[in-house]
Fold each of these.
Amino acid sequence: MNKEQIESILNNASEEFLESFFETLLNEINSDDEPYFKKARQLLLASLNNKQADDFFIALCGWNLESLFSRMI
């Protein structure tokens, strides 16, 4: 999906559409049978290539990477 398509969704999507998108995302995360260590590795690798990686994590769960690591048990 390109930038223009995402901007169009942001400008035109209803709350219901956005809620449905997030529910779908959570369902797909929860139903993915890839081991957690592989998911974590891919997220961290993707974070290396993105200067705003913390923004992604904050949007997803409310915490940046540093905070997530400090919250680990």
Note: The helical segments are 3-12, 15-31, 36-48, 53-61, 65-71.
Amino acid sequence: MAQATDDLNANPTQAQQILEEVRELRQEVEQANQKNNEFNQKFDNYQKATQWVVQLAFSLIAAATVTVIVSTVLGR
């Protein structure tokens, strides 16, 4: 570890380049995290919408079934 520190102290330009690369990598990771969060939000919205459509379909089927049964029983 001391050798690496001595090498960086001997060549400050190299240390600056390494720091710049670390900053660039950090920005890339932050951008990737942001895109991942956006994707997760879209997926969550899609999942909720799909669940809502399924519930609506079952409700319509149930309502139609009740209507048919009541109509048959009452003879209308």
Note: The mean pLDDT is 90.
Amino acid sequence: MLSITSQYLARYRHHTAGDRSGALLPVTGAQRRFVLVRSLDPSGRPDVVPMFFAFPHDTIDPERLRSAARRLAARHTALRSRPVVVRGTPVLRVGEPDVCVTRPASAPGERPADTLRRALAAWDPQGPPLRLFLARDDEDRKEDILAVVLDHAVCDGRSLARIVEDLGAAYAEDAGAARFSPEETQAELVAYREAVLLQLAAEDRAETPEAVAYWADRLRALRAQAPPPRPDRVPDGTLPSGAAQAVLPAHDGGVPFPDLLDACRAAARALYGPGHVVPLGYPWGGRPAGAETVVGCFLNTVVFPATTGQDSAAGATADAWWDDLDRADAPFDAVVAGARSAGSGWTGSLDGLLTVDDDSRRPPLVLAGVEGREADVDGRQVRGPFAVSVTQGAEIRLRMVWDRAVLDDDTAHGAFDALTQALCPSERAVN
């Protein structure tokens, strides 16, 4: 039987056989997941990745920034491509760079973070994949906040540093500088297409009957445990999501990933109770061997079955995780299909998500010599019941957000305390 990846490629090639423009590109397994999630959302809302940078008031030139953003999009095929579905087959449609810098109007007394929160809530799913929003502080005249926001289907965590660096470099160029030449644009498109095809080949090799059977057995007992969203849980005037954060002492060499998984298991137990096997996801992977380091979405979502009963025996999570990594390239949709074919009732929804960053890989955004301070804008809509982000470096920055339509604040704060205590028993969460 053909793998899901092979079936996808066959459909893609059939639908694009007469397309001489080369404007329709195949998508990776990671992109297929995001396109599917978007199609299941009643409003067609995509997953978006925002980065927020605070700059001294009135230091950003919006027109210069707009020109820089368009040159950035011209340099990276993914940033001028929109996810679309052609006769049931997801693809990227390549277009011209279409990036604008929006300056959303502030309501009386509204802070820049509030203005940006409103702007992102009104995100038009039919618009370009890269958008910039500049919220100015015209009252206190202290800091403006720039939001660089991307459709997750065109970027992953490993693309963000490149995007930040290239946007700063483009801003430093003469505003009238020419964009990529047609030859450079075509060469980058070819490199991007080749990287995606290499990724699909790697996914096809990983999607063996043995790997699918492994995941089917590993995930057989999974059941999504989060209650369904209830908008009435969120009173009028309350932000749609909650957040908590803490700063913990650094570990030599960083916290081992299995320990982070066990900490998320403790949070899941506090949220959903004991005696469950909860689906937690985390991104893993990278660009395929031999591919250019193009901007795009290549990281697979790997599923960790978090058992919320008694703590596992010492080393058990690490042993299982290493076994998982041997099959981590199997694409998410193939893993879900394998689990369901084995009798699991799991539909592919995740009850939690874990992301881990190294702060040495998070360069600041520098515009004309001015370094922006990375900022948080809490209260935005979030996808899924809860998400944990860990940034490791000279200290550990731990952050958790949750959907208030799914989880109440008291329960979520208790889960964050459990998460923090699992990582550093002597610390209390700072919410």
Note: The CA atoms of residues 253 and 373 lie 26 Å apart.
